[in-house]
C-alpha cells in the first residue's frame, strides 16, 4: 500500500525525518520527570491543563527532544510559539522571560544531575567503604 499523498501526510513524514535526524533521545520516563518538575505550563504557568512537549530551541532551528531542551507547555502556548525563538516570543506575549529562564536552568540542572552521577559511577565504579 502506498503512503498517503495528502499535504498533512507529507508534512508528518518530513517532521518525523527531522526528529529522527536531530538526535532526539527523550524517553517516556524522562518526560514524566519533566512534567513533575514543572507541574504546570513552563511559559504561562497554567495548571490543570493538558501539557504537551515543547522544544525550547525548535527542531527546525537545530533543537532536539532531549531532557535539556523539552519543557511542558499548554496547547495555547505551544501553538503560538510554533518554531519561534523562545525569548523573543515571550517578550512579544509579555510573559515573564527572566523567571522562565531561571526556572529552566535550575530544573534542567536538577534533572541532569542524577544522570551525570550515574555516568560518573559507571566510569569510576562504586565508592569503596
UniProtKB/TrEMBL annotation:
Pfam families: HNH_5
InterPro entries: HNH_5 (IPR029471), HNH_nuc (IPR003615), NA-targeting_endonuclease (IPR052892)
Organism superkingdom: Bacteria
Residue span(s) of domain HNH nuclease: 29-79
Keywords assigned by UniProt, alphabetized: Endonuclease, Hydrolase, Nuclease
MF GO annotations: endonuclease activity
Protein name per Swiss-Prot or TrEMBL: HNH endonuclease
Organism in which the protein naturally occurs: Microbacterium schleiferi
